[in-house]
Amino acid sequence: MKEILILAYKLLVNDKGKYTALLVGTVFSVFLIVQMTSSFAGILTKASATVINVGASIWVMDPSATNSVMGSIPMPDYVLDAVRSINGVKYAVPLYSGAALLKLHDGTYQAVTVLGLDDASLVGRPELIEGNIEDIFAENGFIAVKDEEFYKLKNPKLGTEFELNDHRGVIVGIATVPTGALYGTPTLFTTYNRAIQYIPSLRFTSSYILVEPKRPSDIVTIKQQVAQLGYVALTNSEFQQGISNYLKYQTGIGTNTLLMTVISFIVGLSISGQTFYTFILENLEHFGALKAMGAKGRDLVYMILFQAAFTSLVGYGLGIGLSTLLITAAKLRLPEYASRVTYANLGFAFLLVLIIASISSYAGIRRVLRVEPFDIFRG
Amino acid sequence: MAEAAIMAEKLNKWFGAEEARTYAVRDASFEAYWGEMLYIVGPSGSGKTTLLSMISGILRPNSGTVRIDHHELWSLPDNQIADFRLNAIGFVFQDYHLFPRLTTAENVAIPLVLQRRPWKEALRAAARYLEVVGLSDKADLPPSKLSGGEQQRVAIARAIVHEPRILVFDEPTASLDGETGRKIVSFVKNEVLNPNRCILIITHDSRIFEYSNRIMSMEDGRITGFQQKDLYEAREA
């Protein structure tokens, strides 16, 4: 078998023009597919940035606010007390999430997202790269997140001042977070009480209640008890999934991405399939000669499958490499670029490449199996 | 009397059905012997290639039998017929059908590769047979770098590299000038033919008739006679 495959390999790669055309088709297709799905994955991840960055196990919220962190609906204070009294809750703390307009030290204005952490515990606090976390309790203390949007705050340093609703604010810490936000606004952390004091609020102020269960098995009970209060409790992953599902199915983003991915697939299939079929047709007399010499149908099938698989795998590798290179380069120039290559993207692209290879080789195999050695023999 | 290598009996091949049926070969019976170089001659459309295809396991006859080395060829299943072609027959096609993307040596090695012989071993054997046909210095070149006569010799090396007992040539001199054609056929007669091998050659080229042992004529699908007596027997005598 190995020898037959070596023969197939040489027949394929020694035809440099055709082989290059086959690779270009596959690489182009993989490149487009990975670009599309990676951009979508990047958007989904960034949309869940607050959930990921705060990292609480369970989020309690209004049932109408499960689609986006930006769309939180404040809850009355008794909900916090009620959640704390649920059997199985280790602790529960409020989280404020809101938008504000900063007046920067140079006089310009910048919209920001402010997250107010529970004053007592600071649950959900970010990892500091400059400053001390205790300084958040200092007068007017805020922590700036050094993500892709950080520069919009004019790259503040410790001690940089700003105004928020005529309140003085001071940067007392610079933090890093796992994921930057989607909506293009910088993020500031402060205490819960300072947040509701500085930012005009509705009657109720708790955007979310962050809950830590005593045991994982308590999650079910907590969800049931919260539901009886008229609210909803989602685990971290459920909340992320909810946000993803909203973007996928209730906005045009999912449909657009799917359409572009399908188009990429069709383009790849057209180029690769057509080129591979032409390659088979041009080699038809050679396959016929092999048949006349005694090659069996299955030998020729193995050869064609190997050629299709080899081309697809090389094209897949090059396509992934090219996509990753471009995404990395783009992120260096455009920090906000929302693109993330995930294993799921790679698997999905691999699946589509396999389909392209299967369809391409199927047409070729049908043609080769029909060729009669007699036609080759009589010239 | 030499032993018969090939015995064809009442071979018939037609194409089309009912009223449209056209006979390509009709009631063809003949024997070819080990150590013999048998030419099959006749005008275009006389059924030479069809007959040779049925003899070599490429085209199934509508009726009649072919016995090769005591085996009833067309009673074998398709896979075994392919094995038979692979092991017992060497083909030299009219257009050579060399693979342009392979080197000369790799072209010659193809039958051994199809026999699942290791790649390097096949290439070593190919190199030996390229030496036999006088092309050992061209082993690494693609066929496109060779002259017509050299390509023909590569095709011959490929046909004999797996040491088949029967060789089938289709118009071996059709693309060659007279001198080169005579050299090639002379080479086949002197170096390739042996008492354990039978060679069948389809040709129109009367300039190479002198190298044959017998010449079988065909017309309108029928064998019309043997134009030359069995020289092999004469030579043995």
Task: List the topology elements.
The complex is a heterodimer of chains A (379) and B (237).
Chain A: H1 2-13, H2 16-47, H3 49-54, E1 58-61, H4 77-84, E2 89-103, E3 109-117, E4 127-131, E5 141-145, E6 161-164, E7 167-176, E8 187-191, H5 192-198, E9 208-213, H6 218-228, E10 232-235, H7 236-249, H8 252-282, H9 284-293, H10 297-333, H11 343-370, H12 373-377
Parallel strand pairs in A: 3-8, 5-7
Antiparallel strand pairs in A: 1-9, 1-10, 2-3, 2-6, 2-9, 4-7, 5-8, 6-7
Helix pairs in contact in A: 1-10, 2-8, 2-10, 2-11, 8-11, 10-11
Chain B: E1 4-15, E2 22-33, E3 37-41, H1 48-55, E4 63-68, E5 71-72, H2 78-88, E6 89-92, H3 104-114, H4 119-132, H5 148-160, E7 166-170, H6 178-192, E8 198-202, E9 214-219, E10 222-226, H7 231-236
Parallel strand pairs in B: 3-8, 3-9, 6-7, 7-8
Antiparallel strand pairs in B: 1-2, 1-4, 4-5, 9-10
State the helical fraction of chain A.
Answer: 40-55%
Question: What amount of the residues of chain A lies in strands?
Answer: 15-25%
Q: Would you tell me the structural class of the helices and strands of chain A?
A: alpha+beta
Summed up, the helix count of chain A is 12
The 3D shape of chain B can be described as globular
Which stretches of chain A of 5+ consecutive residues score pLDDT under 50? none
Beta strand % of chain B: 25-35%
